[in-house]
Amino acid sequence: MKLLTFSFWLTLIFATGNAVAENDVYNFDTIQTLMPASAFENDARIYPKPSEFSIVRAIPMSTQAGERAALVVIKNMASGQRIFDTKHIVAIMADGTRVFGNLTDARVKLAGHEQTTIKLEFGPFDYPIVSLYTSESES
Asked: In angstroms, what CA-CA distances link 128 with 42, 43, 77, 109, 120?
């Protein structure tokens, strides 16, 4: 009987752990094309830091719990080395909120004309990401 009770609790704990883990997994959002930044008012006057970085490709992601992130391919358009930081990209949520993301590494060095892929995390939001832009792409 004790073995059966122990087995039950072990199974319950394992199943609960899996359910929590599934909520933390990022899935690609189904949005096909990102909207231009000019589609939303910028009353809070949040702008990306001036830079020579452009976004080659951006794919929004989210978890079941509402955490928002994006897989972003950025390119240094300058001929010399530049350092990318999170203030160079702004995300716009579907309600018009503009936010800066977070990186695991605070800064990323890119040689002239180099591109790299980064994951930016934006935190929990009720609305999905509908736009990502830099000062190079700002409209």
From this structure: 17, 19, 28, 29, 14
Contact 64, 22 (CB under 8 A): yes
d(CA 118, CA 16): 31
Handedness of CA 136, 137, 138, 139 (dihedral sign): positive
Q: What is the pLDDT along the chain (139 residues), one digit of tens a residue?
A: 554 444 544 454 555 444 445 568 999 998 667 888 888 999 999 999 999 999 999 999 999 999 999 999 999 999 999 999 999 999 999 999 999 999 987 789 999 999 999 999 999 999 999 999 999 886 4
Q: What is the pTM of this model?
A: 0.80
Cβ contact 48:84 at 8 Å: no
